[in-house]
Recover the amino acids of this structure.
């Protein structure tokens, strides 16, 4: 009897257990569906900008200071050209500038006291010579009137006296020029030439500075194109620099989900390479125009669908995310819609809150 009672109890208990299990599975699935409806998944690839670093000069490369894979910082020296020719041009421009500075200083200083005293002495000498020439002429003219000397001698004396008087006038003008100093036009022309020499020196030094290549922004050297000894030109890159900040995920949003996502929404990024790890992110840009899904992203059936490109900025503090890596973007739809663009150190980790 006891065995029969136990069997009857088991027959009644088994359906109840099965019913409880079915109910639990139904409740779990319902909760999962609710959670999935509150979370939007987007699929895309990690993207970043690249810079082709070329040096603004044409000469032979002297040094290449970084290798592929090196992390570089803004302002870091990356390469240098041979600078002997450019240094010689800069030294020549500096010498011309120094000479022109001396010319301007001489003109601005005016005549030296010694020059003025010399001009006065020359005037006094010409005046003495003029008086002597005048006396000689007067004597010869009297003798010529008495036919004691020839007419030619008298005329020569008259000419010499007239020339002496003109030399006095010239010496007088030279003295006035010495007192007045250089003309203002000459000083202005010298100053203009000084500015031209300064510009030439600045250009020469600029060209000398262009012989060095510096990193324009933080990043990673992806390619080292040339080597020391190669000829560099502005058209030939030396390095390819990958800009790691900002880094973003290029994903695509369907038209039905377009109204549920806005710029500034916080997100999380997952990668199959690092299971269980979430990277902080936020929606930075939603394309204003639709496009067909790229062939590299979806199947042929979905490629014909119109989508909107979404750029999701992602924080990559450990450098684990790489260019082209496929990732999943998780967007919580419970958060308020707002417009913001925060740096990585200010983006809240939605998974930890």
């Amino acid at each position: 009897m006891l065995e029969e009672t136990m069997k009857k109890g088991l027959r009644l208990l088994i359906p109840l257990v099965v019913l409880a299990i079915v109910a639990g599975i139904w409740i779990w699935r319902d909760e999962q569906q609710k959670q999935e409806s509150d979370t939007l998944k987007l699929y895309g690839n990690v993207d970043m900008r690249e810079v082709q670093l070329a040096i603004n000069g044409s000469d032979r490369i002297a040094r290449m200071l970084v290798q592929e894979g090196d992390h570089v910082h803004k302002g870091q020296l990356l390469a240098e050209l041979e600078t002997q020719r450019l240094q010689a041009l800069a030294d020549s421009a500096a010498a011309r500038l120094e000479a022109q500075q001396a010319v301007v200083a001489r003109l601005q200083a005016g005549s030296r006291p010694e020059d003025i005293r010399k001009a006065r002495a020359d005037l006094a000498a010409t005046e003495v010579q003029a008086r002597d020439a005048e006396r000689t002429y007067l004597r010869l003219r009297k003798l010529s009137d008495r036919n004691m000397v020839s007419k030619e001698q008298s005329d020569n004396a008259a000419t010499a006296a007239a020339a002496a008087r003109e030399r006095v006038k010239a010496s007088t003008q030279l003295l006035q020029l010495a007192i007045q100093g250089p003309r203002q036009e000459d000083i202005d022309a010298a100053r203009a030439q000084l500015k031209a020499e300064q510009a030439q020196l600045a250009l020469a030094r600029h060209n000398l500075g262009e012989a060095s290549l510096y990193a324009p922004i933080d990043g990673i050297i992806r390619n080292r194109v040339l080597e020391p000894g190669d000829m560099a030109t502005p058209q030939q890159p030396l390095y390819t620099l990958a800009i790691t900040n900002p880094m973003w995920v290029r994903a695509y949003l369907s038209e039905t989900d377009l109204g549920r996502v806005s710029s500034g929404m916080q997100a999380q990024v997952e990668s199959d390479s690092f299971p269980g790890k979430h990277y902080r992110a936020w929606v930075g840009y939603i394309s204003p125009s639709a496009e067909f899904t790229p062939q590299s992203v979806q199947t042929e059936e979905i490629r014909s669908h119109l989508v909107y490109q979404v750029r999701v900025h992602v924080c990559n503090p450990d450098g684990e995310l790489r260019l082209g890596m496929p990732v999943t973007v998780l967007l919580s739809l419970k958060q308020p819609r707002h417009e913001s663009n925060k740096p990585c150190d200010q983006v809240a980790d939605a998974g930890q809150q």
In short: Helices lie at 2-37, 84-109, 113-145, 151-180, 184-209, 300-303. The first helix runs from residue 2 to 37.
